[in-house]
Amino acid sequence: MCGRYAASRSPEELAAAFGVEKWEPAETLAPDWNVAPTKQVHVILERPLKDAESRRPVRQMRVLKWGLVPSWVQGPENAARMINARAETLHEKPSFKEAFARRRCIVPADGYYEWVTGADERDLEVEGKRKRARKQPYFVTPADGSVFAMAGIYEFWRDRTLPDAHPLAWWVTCSVVTTEAETAPLGVAPAEGPRSLADIHPRMPLMLTPDRWDAWLDPARTTPGALGGLLAPPPEGLMRAYPVATAVSNVRNNGPELLKELEGPEEATLF
Predict the structure, then answer these.
(1) d(CA 206, CA 133)
(2) Residue spans per domain, the chain
(3) Could you read off the pLDDT of 256-266 as tens digits, one per residue?
(4) 5-114+146-235: CATH class
């Protein structure tokens, strides 16, 4: 899964990396090393510009809320529960299938955080139970230092208690698509600890390599046949993971120091 990530690249850098044609400098976000659910995040998407004569899809960088709100729900109260969408069931889940077909985006990141879960604790999580313990966080990032392009989907929700012209009448929200974590050895493995992403957590964000960006963002691709291949995992060995301080576990902590690599797990954390 993906429940926390870092996004410190400037809007200018993101626009250049993804070939963005349209973005609003006044609406961009500051660097964030501890992005949490319900926060505003940068995404890359393609759709016609509002009120433009041409209906040509334009690649844009937009600011959306992380936590998808389906268009048909009565209220946005459960948005924080829909931060992730499983790749295996995107095409059939009522909350996600329409967005998967027509509203796909890329969520750019430096990398994501995940907390090592021991085998016993992992079984409890699968059963929907929680065990309070101090777990060791790891930061997972492309081994070559490039931007981590996470596959995403987005949706519009209309608050019908407000007039259409109200600035809060429309919500635009997103989810990160997840897939099974790699079991192959990491491209750069930590000196001690997990040797693969699956050792850290059974799920991970679906990484889109640059050769898939255009196809993923193309709103003309709407059929299962045109979309199924885009959900294939990327080549193995592109990622590295390393332990970071447990300070990241508190969403109030934010700064580049959260990405500092530790020599090993902190004391009193589970491994």
Answers:
(1) 27
(2) 5-114+146-235
(3) 999 999 987 77
(4) alpha beta
